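Worked example

This section walks through a single chain of length 175. The input is the sequence exactly as stored; nothing has been trimmed or padded.
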Amino acid sequence: MTELDSRCLEAFPTWLRTLGEDARALAALVEAESTPASVKRPAAAALNYLFKSLDLIPDGIEDLGLIDDAFVFRVAASRAGSEAGPVVARLGADAELIRAFLGDDYPRMEAYVAGLGASASRGRSVDDIMGDSTLMAEFVREVRAWADGYKEPTFQRDAKNLVKLKSFLSAKLPK
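Given that input, the structure is written out below as tokens.
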């Protein structure tokens, strides 16, 4: 097992453990009037990804189903920059491990996350969420309800999971 594998097997279960808290923190940024649009938009896109019916890795797949959501949060935060404070800075810094893990596929992941702002989940796009305060409040409530009901999935600290994860993402990320 490589040093990178060890780092990933240590970090990824932690990211799954904090996914609900991370969603709440991003929702608070989306909701706050003081948050710059350059931070709100990627945060809203990442949160909207939670509700996407066809995401990169289906949520029901044991061990892997929600790690793509954790990846999306981190890549979106890295795109937003650290101006939004410690949550975005922490999530954004974690994107470096994703970059190392995905290697040549990382630019495809960045492009995928960048494109999430133009896609819709549950019939709403980021523009819809940002442009309608009632819709934004409903969206934030849904995110919080999701976070309240979130149950941390397993992620076995097995290098085979890393191979499966990389294969899934390599196959599913748009070329």
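What to look for: The two ends are 29 Å apart (CA to CA).
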